[in-house]
Write a structure and sequence with these properties.
alpha/beta; 6 strands; 47% helix; 12% strand
Length: 313
């Protein structure tokens, strides 16, 4: 089913009506929704897909733009607004140098809250021309966010939103993302406008203590899952090993990317780098069904974190 072009947003509440502003020979011009447009190390973007287009608005989904090349590619594609749902601090300086506006609405692998989906819809409604929605890899949170935002502004149905996620390669393990898109609906102008305070270029998680507290919570969930062959236990059926591992990796990326985070010395920096690498390995192993290896990795992660806590907490 093709996506429904029903963008009738921006009435009395002052939401901007987008103007058509994209390259005359857009590479997605004759592609169906969800089709792959670009996946290139040289271009600095991966899994870039066309999600929606009409005469006034184009919505793309993909990975984090990598380095100068990634931002230059987006600018060359005519992107004007970038919506990041990754937790890490956006590279605002590179975006500004390429004439890109950033909106930062970080979401979790476990799902999209009502406030977040409203803010994403508002960001799409207010954005002119070509919009790029990204997470880190461009497969899970980003496609879900783009889909739920399009549903919110009346540009596609939940069924079509789920089809977009399928084409983007969103893992079935992230049940919260799938469920939220399936149950999303069109939002009114008044509902969207209430999310205006969330339209910011950097939604900073409030400090290292807050991030560490969230890490503790996520690690506790992973520890429970590791004792049950990475399956949700009966007393906690909502847990997902894939979601929790992805969230932990995302939190480490946030710390490492934020220059304002305190780094007492090189030993501390080494602990953080090692832990981040182990978290990434753990996520890869869980997604690859390497259960035994993942148990070893989480024990290594526990040892690294404990050593760091002993000296610095």
């Amino acid at each position: 089913m093709m996506l429904i072009a029903l963008c009738v947003i921006g009435l009395a509440v002052g939401i901007a009506q987008p103007e058509h502003d994209q390259p005359t020979a857009a590479p997605w011009e004759n592609l169906e929704p969800g089709a792959l447009v670009m996946d290139s190390d040289d271009a600095g973007v991966h899994n870039l897909r066309i999600f929606y287009q009409d005469q006034s608005r184009t919505v793309l989904s993909g990975s984090l733009p990598h380095g100068d090349a990634g931002f230059e590619t987006l600018a060359e594609l005519g992107v004007k607004t970038v919506i990041s749902v990754d937790a890490a601090r956006p590279e605002l300086e590179k975006a500004e140098a390429n004439g890109l506006r950033y909106i930062h609405i970080p979401i979790k692998y476990s799902g999209i809250t009502e406030e977040q989906r409203t803010a994403i819809a508002l960001a799409l409604a207010q954005s002119e021309g070509t919009v790029y929605v990204h997470c880190h890899h461009g497969k899970h949170r980003g496609p879900a966010a783009a889909a739920i935002g399009l549903i919110g502004i009346g540009a596609c149905t939940p069924e079509d939103g789920r089809k977009l996620m399928e084409r983007a390669g969103t893992s079935a393990s992230y049940t919260g993302l799938w469920d939220d898109v399936a149950h999303a609906g069109t939002l009114t102008d008044a509902e969207m406008v209430r999310a205006s305070p969330m339209i910011v270029e950097y939604a900073r998680i409030e400090g290292l203590p807050a991030i560490m507290a969230e890490m503790d919570r996520v690690y506790d969930h992973l520890a429970v899952l590791s004792k049950n062959d990475w399956q949700a236990p009966e007393n906690h059926p909502d847990l997902s090993a894939e979601s929790e591992a992805g969230q932990l990796t995302d939190l480490f990326r946030t710390i490492l990317a934020d220059s304002s985070m305190p780094v007492p010395d090189e030993t501390y920096a080494g602990y953080m780098t090692e832990a981040a690498q182990l978290a990434t390995t753990l996520e890869t192993q869980i997604l690859g069904n390497q259960s035994a290896e993942a148990v070893i990795t989480i024990e290594q992660l526990k040892a690294t974190c404990s050593a760091c806590h002993k000296s610095y907490r």
